[in-house]
Design goal:
CATH architecture: Roll
Oligomer: single chain
Largest sheet: 7 strands, mixed
Number of domains: 1
Structural class: alpha+beta
CATH topology: Bifunctional nuclease domain
Radius of gyration: 17 Å
Length: about 180
Amino acid sequence: MAGDRKDFLLMVVGGITLDPTTKMPIVVLKDPDNKFNLPIWVGPVEATAMATELEGAKPQRPMTHDLLRNVLAEFGATVEWVDVTELRDNTYYAEIHMKTREGQELVIDSRPSDALALALRTKSPIYVAKKVLEASSELYETTAEQQPQSEQNLAGVSRDKWSEILERMSPEDFKYKM
């Protein structure tokens, strides 16, 4: 099931911030060498789910992704890794790779936000297809060309500019605030 991983890059959740224009949460994935990053706009609920896990907060009752992790554990299933597999029509796609107690390998279609929240809770690796990084870079360059410089939002920022922005940000900038 592991297949050929050469077309994927291992990444981690670098932080969560808000798009200054839309005020929508953005989860930023980055590779361990900090050469590549991938911003993915997510919903407030999913951003909160990721933020609570990143901050080590323990809610009094299980949140949805905690429930999913607990159900999988009860059935003896493990999350082996998650993949962000595709960028199509400005929408990211992901898969959750799991193994059952009996050793059966499963691949479950998922929104990236849910896959990332589950990966954080199960301490599972996160991979991004190299074609997704290339497509997102092209998308942002195209968006930047179409917008006047003064009206660019974070989607119109090149990969190099993203690196510069991320280097200037402090840890407080990455905390998602409700």
